[in-house]
Specification:
The chain has one domain. Helices cover 4% and strands 64% of the residues. The longest helix has 5 residues.
Length: 240
C-alpha cells in the first residue's frame, strides 16, 4: 500500500510598531514574529532502501559596535527496526547595539529538511525586536527550527533488523546537555542587554544510530572588532 505525496504549510505573522516624540528626539520600537509549520507525507509502505538523512542549519549576522551571533544545532537519527526516526532543532540568534545615532543590524534564519521520509514535520519560528533612539540603537533577532521525520519499514516487520541500541549515557542524557544550558554560553539576556565587544559562537551536537550511519557537520564563525559578528553552519545525520 502506498499513499501519494502531499505537503501543507501554515504561516502566522505578527508585527507591532510604536513611535514617540519628545524634546530629546524621537524613539521608534518594532516587534515582529512569524511561525511556519510544514507537514509532508510521502509514500507510506514504500520499499525504498535509500536510507534517511536529515539536515538542520542556520545563520546569524549582527553588525554594529557591540554584537553577538550565537548558533546551536542538535540532531539525532535512530534505526529502531520498524522505522527510522530523526529529530532535532536549530537555534540561531543575533544582537547588535550601537551608540551615537549609528544604526544597528541583526538577522537570523534556520531551516530543516529530511530525505526518504514517510512523514516530515518542521516548525520554524522567528522573532525580531529593534529600538532606535537619538542616543542608541538596538536590534535582536532569533530563529528556531524544530524537525521530526519518520520513515516506516512496513515491507516485512518479521524480518526487520533489530534496533540499534544507543550507547549508555548518549541518548536523552546527551541531548539534555543543551549548549543553551552550558554555563559558559551567553544567556538570552546577554544577547540583547549589556553587550560589550563582538562575540560569535556556534555549537553542534549530532548523532546517528544504525547501520551505515552518517554524521557530517560544517560551521564557521567570524568577528570584526567594533563591526561584526557572524556564524553559520549545518549538520547532516542519517542511517542507510
Amino acid at each position: 500500500m502506498k499513499v501519494s505525496s502531499s505537503y501543507s504549510s501554515t504561516t502566522s505573522i505578527y508585527t507591532a510598531s510604536t513611535s514617540t516624540d519628545s524634546d530629546g528626539g524621537s524613539t521608534h520600537q518594532t516587534q515582529s514574529s512569524d511561525t511556519t509549520i510544514g507537514v509532508y507525507s510521502g509514500s507510506l509502505g514504500s520499499e525504498s532502501d535509500d536510507g534517511t538523512v536529515a539536515v538542520l542549519g542556520g545563520e546569524a549576522t549582527a553588525a554594529g559596535e557591540d554584537t553577538t551571533a550565537i548558533g546551536t544545532i542538535q540532531g539525532k537519527v535512530s534505526d529502531v527496526g520498524t522505522a527510522v526516526i530523526a529529530e532535532g532543532s536549530a537555534t540561531f540568534s543575533a544582537s547588535s547595539e550601537t551608540s551615537g545615532g549609528e544604526p544597528a543590524y541583526a538577522s537570523a534564519s534556520t531551516y530543516g529538511e529530511a530525505s526518504a521520509a514517510d512523514t516530515l514535520v518542521t516548525v520554524t519560528s522567528t522573532t525580531s525586536e529593534s529600538l532606535q533612539t537619538p542616543d542608541e540603537s538596538k536590534w535582536t533577532e532569533t530563529s528556531t527550527t524544530n524537525l521530526m521525520a519518520v520513515d516506516l519499514n512496513l515491507s516485512d516487520t518479521s524480518d526487520s533488523p533489530e534496533a540499534v541500541n544507543e550507547p549508555s549515557g548518549s541518548s536523552s542524557d546527551q541531548q539534555s546537555d543543551s549548549p543553551n544550558e552550558d554555563a559558559s554560553a551567553p544567556s538570552e539576556d546577554f544577547t540583547y542587554n549589556g553587550l560589550d565587544g563582538n562575540l560569535a559562537i556556534i555549537e553542534i551536537d549530532a548523532t546517528a544510530y544504525g547501520d551505515d550511519s552518517l554524521v557530517f557537520v560544517d560551521a564557521s564563525a567570524l568577528t570584526i572588532e567594533d563591526g561584526l559578528s557572524a556564524v553559520n553552519g549545518y549538520a547532516w545525520f542519517g542511517v542507510g
